Every structure is written in C-alpha cells, then in structure tokens.
Amino acid sequence: MVQHTPRGFRVHTASAGLSDDGRDDLTIVVSETPAVACAMFTKSRFAGPSVVLSREAVADFSARGFVVLARNANVATGKLGMENAVEVRRRVAQAVGLSDQELLIAATGVIGVQFPMDSVRAALDELQWPFDGNDFDAAAHSIMTTDTKAKVISLKCGDASLVGIAKGVGMLEPNMATMLTFFCTDADIPQPELDRVFRSVIARTFNAVSIDTDTSTSDTAAIFANGQAGPVDVDEFERVLYDAALRLVREIARDGEGATKLIEVHVSGARDDDQAKRVGKTVVNSPLVKTAVHGSDPNWGRVAMAIGKCQDDLDIVPERVRIGFGDLDVYPDLPDEDAMARLVEHLEGDTVQINIDLGIADGGFTVYGCDLTEGYVRLNSEYTT
Amino acid sequence: MVQHTPRGFRVHTASAGLSDDGRDDLTIVVSETPAVACAMFTKSRFAGPSVVLSREAVADFSARGFVVLARNANVATGKLGMENAVEVRRRVAQAVGLSDQELLIAATGVIGVQFPMDSVRAALDELQWPFDGNDFDAAAHSIMTTDTKAKVISLKCGDASLVGIAKGVGMLEPNMATMLTFFCTDADIPQPELDRVFRSVIARTFNAVSIDTDTSTSDTAAIFANGQAGPVDVDEFERVLYDAALRLVREIARDGEGATKLIEVHVSGARDDDQAKRVGKTVVNSPLVKTAVHGSDPNWGRVAMAIGKCQDDLDIVPERVRIGFGDLDVYPDLPDEDAMARLVEHLEGDTVQINIDLGIADGGFTVYGCDLTEGYVRLNSEYTT
Question: Which parts of the sequence bind substrate (chains A, B) (predicted)?
Fold first, then answer.
C-alpha cells in the first residue's frame, strides 16, 4: 500500500485487451507539471521499439510520464511493431496534451506477437485528461505479467515523497535497468544530480539482481521528479532512493518464477567492486548453487566451484578464499556437527545469505537472486512468454 | 560396446570404497610401451590437486596412462587432499613400474570431502602388473558419477584403433576440456601433430557442450598414442577423432542431468567462429530456451531474447538475423499454421536443432546442450555433488 504519494502525478490504468482475462494491462502515469527524468534501458541486441522510442525521449530530457503495456513485449515484431508503438505513444501524448518526446513507453510480455491494436485503440479512446486518480497501487498491479505480487514502495524524504513500482519475475538479469521499474517523486532535484544519484542506485540494486541470467529485451528503469515539494537534501534523497530500490529488488528476487527463497551473496575482500560483482553474479546464477539452496543442502563445494568459474581472475586462489552461510563459516574451516545443524536451519529459512571473502583487497558487492525450483521449470515449459 | 581395442593398453577397474554401493570407482589405464600424450584441463580457479599434478605430468610429455577416482573430486581439500592425490598416483606408478610423471590422475564427484584413504589404500594393495584385461567398457562404467549411461566409442583409422571414454552429466560447461574424457590409440603419431589435432578436435566438441553453465573443477581431456599399429594418415586420424569425440559429446548432452532432449544450436553468418560460438552458447545455456524446448513450445522469441544477450556484439541487429528450428524458418518470416504444426513435431523429437544466421559474414559454430527439466532440479536439490 502506498502511504506517501508524491504530489502532481496522475495515474490511469485500464484493460487494453492484451490477453483474455480482462485484467488491467495499460498503465499511464503523467506529471501535471514539467519534471526532470532519467532512465536506463536494456542493452539487449533485440531491444524492442518501446526501448528505442524511450531512449530518444530520455536523451531529450523532457520526459514527464510513461505508458506501459503488459503481457506483450512488442519485440521482434518488425516495422509494424514500431508503427504500433509510435501510434500508442502519440495517442496517449495527444490525450494528455504533451508532445511524443515527453512520454516514455514500455512493453513487457510475450515476444514476437503484434499488439491487438483494435482493443488497444478502444482503450485509448477512453482517455480523459486529467486522469481521476493517483493510485500507484493500481499501477503496480497493472504492469504485472507472471508476477505473483505487485511490487510497490513509498518513502518520505524531508517534505517530499517517493513512490516506486516494479515488475519482473523471469527473463531477468538486468544490465543497466530491470524489467520495468518506475519512480516518481515530488522532490525538486536538478537533472544532473538526479542522473548521478539514479545511476549509482540502479548499479547497486536493479543491476545486482538475477533470476535466471536471461536479460530481457525490454528492461527499463526510470525516475521522474516534478519538484512540487521543493528542494531536498540530495544525500538523503540518495539514501531513500537506495532503500526504496533495494526493497523492490528483494521483492523481485523473492518473487522470482517458482522461487521459494531469496539468496543474497555478499562478496568482500575483492580486488575491486567489479570483481566482487562478477564473483557474486557467478555464484547467484549457478544452477547447482540455486538447486542446493532449494534443497537446503549446505553444499558449499558448489559455491567453491562457482567462484572457480571466474577463470580470468587469476588473483583468486583457493588458499585465500573464505566461504560462509549466514553467520557461519564453512571454508576453509569446515563446520562441526553442531554448526552443520545450524547451517541447515539457516538454509531452511526464506532468506539465504552466502558470504565470500576473496582475501585480495577491499572491494565488495552484494547481489540478489533466488533458488531454482521445479516450479520454475514447470512455469516456463508450459507458458509462452 | 568396444569393437576396436587399441593394442598395448591395459585396463584395471576396482572398488576403492568412494561410496557405499560397492560399485567400481577406481580406473587405471596404462600403455605397456611408451606413448605420446596430450591433455587439456579445466581453467577453474578452484581446480583440485589432480588437475595440478596432471598438468605437470603433461608438461613433461612422457605420460602413458591415467588413474581416475570417481564420486569424490578431491577439490577444496587443502594440504591433506594434495598429499592424498600424490600418494594415490605414486602407489599406482610403483605398482605398474612407472615414474609418477608418467601418469595422469583425475578425480570427479563431491567437492570438499577427503578421500576415504583406508579403502583406497586397500584397493591399491591389490594392484598386480600387468593388469589382466583391456576392457574399456568397464573403464567407461567405473568413471561414472551421476551418469545414467556409460559413454564409450571405438573407431578404426587405417590399421590403428581409437577408443574414447567420457563421463559427465552436470556441473558441465567445459572450457579447455570436459569433465573427464580419455582417448587411447595404437596409432603412431608424432607428439606435435597429436597435440595440434587434439586441440582442434576438443575445441569443436568437448568445448562446445554445456549442460548447465557450471564449469567443473575437475575437467580433464587426454589422449594417449603408443604407436603399436604404425603410422596413420593424420588428416584421416583427425576426422576419426572428431567423429569419436562428437559422438561422445552428443551422448553427454543427451544424458545431461534430468535431460530428455539433445539441443544442437547451429550458428552461421557470424563475424567469425568465436562470435558464432558465443551466440550459440548464450542460446543453449538460456534457461528460458531450455525450458521451452522441454515443453516442446516453439517459442522462438526466447531464442531472439538469448541472441540479444550478446550485448557487446554491436554488429548483431534484429533486421539481419534469421532463426529456424530443424528445416523450418520462424523469423523474420513467421511460420503459418501448417509449418507451426511441423515445428511442434520437431520440438517433440529427441533432438532439437536451432539454426541461427546472423547475416554478418561467414563465421560458424555448433554447440550442444540439453533441455532443463524438473528432473534436473530434483536431482540437484536432493543430491550432494
């Protein structure tokens, strides 16, 4: 539930018929007044027209809202897919009285299928500005695909409010951004400051999570600040934004397709933060680590194997590495029977912490993921995404 | 069944008590006469003492046999693990009248557990040279861990014979070599030629397979040629060795943990072979592609997504890419209903071919893998490997 709603943002959700169940799948959020924005997108070579259009809009610095279509990514859909994306954005822009370039557009869902433009156009015919509401909970719901829970967070920063929504449970190892996440705030922050803070926070949160290594074609992270609450302390704003983003990331990892547990891999003692991230990602993405966590198996040998996969990091040597789960060390000093029992207990919890010290220098990074379950396989062999 | 046994190799298999079921898990193969050898090993930063010792032996060019312990990798076992590996190899070398450096040693199985040296020593006490037999089928069985089938192949090359054995079903994305594979031949080939041919073949076979992206700490591929059958045509030998290695690789992929289907990804039209391999590996390792194949879902959008993950390959553009399954094209010209039915039929078979043309230049590569199933998850959440 959103408790702190930023001033001046209007929210509209509706069903555009992107699938048969009548659920809301069209989401539009627009600031009534000008805003500064920044956004980051997937680096996929198969990025869709939404990402192409939004990239241009952000380069323009004038974006103050976004439209999302859920359950169809509009990716690998050729010329017609681009025309449809342009039309959707243009019609929304006209309805709310903005230029095309002032709106980001995002789409997420099945790849290679055209939008059902008849029902999409019917939904766009209904748009009336200003929108009635500012219900970000509804927005968080209507951007969902296979998510089992809406991901939404709201926090205060001085007099200003910050709300963030996110979606994504599979095809998820964001690089630059996540599947879809949007933040709106009424704080007054100059664009260059907002840009710096946003990139720094995304690097440590959405770019630090992986469900299944499968980077999406549609990843988009954006923030809009319309300044209606006046200036804020930028350092405090960065802390609040980091807090909000991290909570969303934990929710995303915990809600990973089929997942039963959140995995956090804390890497320290690395040559630098990049190496720490590389090792962390390798461990959190290892199918054998993920299945061991699923089975509550204290199989630290698989963690060692996964660290070993960083084959170009010649300064990683087994003699210097330390591995632990929760507050228990497992390598090189193996746990005794009593510690082993507590280890299994930790692994049976809903959050598993894997700690790795590389013993090289003081670089560190934390990554987030989830266990690999039969549910993931079932969901993805039966469902066309 | 081995039909063509190379002359002059002796085989010994026995139970060394590495697990409780009494199955053979100690394998020793030695040429009666000097041989030339080459070998390639894992690049894992957590490589175990077996790999360290074998690397030294190969650098010495005099290896003419190998010893394998299955069901315990002897990895991340510290000083004692190294001492145990040295002792095992030394006692085998003494029993067969060779120097330590003339034997490779390999171990595969659980990580982080010491060898049960009492039962290992008891098995070594029984060694009597020359060994009675030359049963490579028995050797292929006794190097297995979670393999459901022994992997063995024998072929003729002129008067010479070539036999190859391999094991590995999980923790398997070899880089330089596979879990374990050994070839023995009585062909007479100079060491530099053998080295060139072996590296070329391994690059296109064992280094082209991935079950689960989890590169093992114990990968070893080796070949021994004792020359007893006289000289062979080296080009023909390379073709025969490639044929043998490829058949073993297909067996490995098909027998991947929990796998029900072999996946072959043929990439063509790439900038160079390296790019083709990178794209192929990205596709064959994608959990979403693997689960789609498992569900016989003609979800080519996931193949497009996986290609898109090669984010640094800026010359890959969706407009030039072509994707097909078997002999059917699916992108950019989408299949009609009739083709879609044949597509599902292809996907329901036991071998799924994914064809990707990048439309850039004429680089090509084929990689091998398998589907991701609930069986993989079950096996690896319940079993300590």
Answer: 145, 167, 178, 257, 380, 385
Chain B residue with minimal CA distance to A381? B295
pLDDT at A282: 93
> pLDDT tens-digit profile of B65-122?
999 999 999 988 889 999 999 999 999 999 999 999 999 999 988 888 899 999 999 9
Task: Report whether B385 belongs to an annotated binding site.
Answer: yes
What per-residue confidence (pLDDT) applies to B59?
75
Q: Average of pLDDT values for A287-310?
A: 91
The response to whether A178 counts as a known ligand-binding position is yes
A257 is in an annotated binding site: yes
Report the candidate in A174, A182, A181 with the shortest Cα–Cα distance to residue A212: A174
Out of A213, A288, A316, closest to residue B45 by CB = A316
Taking an 8 Å cut-off on Cβ atoms, the answer to whether A376 and B287 are in contact is yes
SS (H, E, C) A356-367: EECCCCCEEEEE
Q: Cα distance from A169 to chain B (closest Cα, Å)?
A: 12
Q: Which among B151, B71, B67 is positioned nearest to B110, based on CA atoms?
A: B71
Maximum Cα interatomic distance, chain A, rounded to a whole number of Å: 68
A47 residue type, one letter: A
The pLDDT of residue B210: 83
The closest alpha carbon to A288, from A311, A308, A269, belongs to A308
Interval B148-183: pLDDT, tens? 889 999 999 999 999 999 888 777 776 655 568 889
Q: A229 φ, ψ to 5°?
A: -95, 0
| Angle at CA of residue A324, ends A320 and A326, nearest 5° | 150
Which residues of A are tagged catalytic? 178
Per-residue burial over B215-249, b = 16 or more CB atoms within 10 Å of its CB, e = otherwise: bbbbbbbbbbbbbbbeebebeebbebbbbbbbbbb
Mean confidence (pLDDT) of chain A: 90
| Nearest alpha carbon to residue B301 among B354, B223, B368, B222 | B354
Return the exposure string of B373-382: e unless at least 16 CB atoms fall within 10 Å of the residue's CB, then b.
bbbbbbbbbe
B351-365 b/e with 16+ CB inside 10 Å = b?
ebbbbbbbebeebbb
Q: What is the 3-state secondary structure (H, E, C) of B278-343?
A: HHHHHHHCCHHHHHHHHCCCCCHHHHHHHHHCCCCCCCCCHHHCEEEECCEEEECCCCCHHHHHHH
Summary count for chain B: helices (H), strands (E): 11, 14
Strand ranges (DSSP E) for chain A?
Answer: 9-14, 26-31, 36-41, 65-72, 103-110, 151-157, 160-167, 180-188, 220-231, 262-270, 322-325, 328-331, 351-357, 363-370
What is the rounded distance in angstroms from the CA atom of residue A167 to the CA atom of residue A182? 10
Question: Which residue among B46, B374, B376 sits closest to A308, beta carbon to beta carbon?
Answer: B46
Selected residues 258-317 of chain B with any CB under 8 Å from a CB in chain A: 285-288, 291-292, 294-295, 297, 299-302, 304-311, 313-314, 316-317
